Amino acid sequence: MVHESLYLTTHEAALAVVATALKKARQLFSTLAINALLGGILFSSGGMLYVMLLAELGGIYATNPGVISVLQALVYPIGLFYVVTMGVDLFNSNILYFTVGVVRGAVSVTDVLVSLVVSWWLNLVGNIFVCYVMCHYSGISSTPSMVAASVLIVQNKMQLSFVQTLIKAMAGNFFVCLL
Q1: Transmembrane region positions (predicted)?
Q2: What is this structure's pTM?
């Protein structure tokens, strides 16, 4: 049996989140910008693998979509793995860190706004760079199967209700915030 002293209490976990918010708030702007851009670039790699699986294994998806869903669930977190390994910033996890930091009075609202705006925009720019510049211009995502897979994914997402989308987003962001 594992000894209880190896676990953090809820108070200690909250203090660790506040310490992370302080560290992120004190970063140089250039460090924040590079980390946010790299976060978008690295995170998008899992998404591109997600689309590629559906594009390349469309026949299996037609007969047994569960197999493709399991494979997609295995490759999508690769982007999160890269983000954690490199220690770069994602907008989603910054929301957790800075919310707790503001509530505890450790960071200012200005720190929050700067971090969230920069991380959101540069995560988006990094993602667009990978998806459009690297994948589209190289021809990877221009193939008919990739276009069809992308359209199918969007159509499936559009069929969800607001509540379904909200619950899925909350569940996904829970895991992102564990970074």
Answers
A1: 32-55, 67-88, 95-121, 127-154
A2: 0.85
Instruction: Please give the structure tokens belonging to residue 167.
Output: 């619950």
Residue 119 · residue 38 · CB < 8 Å:
no
For 81-117, what is each residue's pLDDT tens digit? 999 899 999 998 899 899 999 999 999 999 999 999 9
Q: Which long-range contacts (CB under 8 A, 24 or more apart) does 140-144 make?
A: 140/48, 140/52, 141/48, 141/51, 143/55
Instruction: Give, as one character, the DSSP assignment of residue 8.
Output: P
Count of alpha carbons within 13 angstroms of residue 155, beta-carbon side: 6
Check residue 179 and give its pLDDT. Answer: 63
Q: What's domain 7-176's superfamily in CATH?
A: Glycerol uptake facilitator protein. (1.20.1080.10)
DSSP codes, 14-68: HHHHHHHHHHHHTS-HHHHHHHHHHHHHHHHHHHHHHHHHHHHTHHHHHH-HHHH
8-state DSSP, 140: G
Q: Could you tell me if 78 and 49 are in contact, meaning their C-beta atoms sit under 8 angstroms apart?
A: yes
Contact 148, 55 (CB under 8 A): yes
Q: What is the pLDDT of residues 141-152, one digit of tens each?
A: 999 999 999 999
Neighbours of 9 (CB within 10 A): 9
Q: How many whole angstroms separate alpha carbon 168 and alpha carbon 170?
A: 5
Average pLDDT in the chain: 92
